[in-house]
């Protein structure tokens, strides 16, 4: 009966992606894929890895966007 919790987790993730705006998903998908694969190989915890990877990927994308904004702002200032 491992299919039950897995299906529930997939439905929850699908709903989370459906309700999130595309601008808020930056980094989440790539992080979820990497985290899911890592979690799978680290003891069959793919869903936990995907959620963690999504959070880390989102944080890194946000940091990267802030750095790019700072660089653009520095380039505009004479």
Automatic annotation (TrEMBL):
<keyword id="KW-0732">Signal</keyword>
<protein>
    <recommendedName>
        <fullName>Glycine zipper 2TM domain-containing protein</fullName>
    </recommendedName>
</protein>
<feature type="signal peptide">
    <location>
        <begin position="1"/>
        <end position="25"/>
    </location>
</feature>
């Amino acid at each position: 009966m491992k299919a039950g919790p897995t299906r529930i987790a997939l439905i929850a993730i699908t709903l989370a992606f459906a309700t999130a705006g595309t601008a808020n998903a930056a980094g989440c998908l790539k992080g979820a894929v990497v985290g899911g694969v890592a979690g799978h190989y680290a003891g069959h915890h793919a869903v936990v890895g995907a959620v963690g990877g999504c959070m880390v990927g989102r944080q890194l994308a946000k940091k990267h966007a802030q750095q790019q904004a700072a660089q653009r702002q520095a380039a505009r200032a004479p």
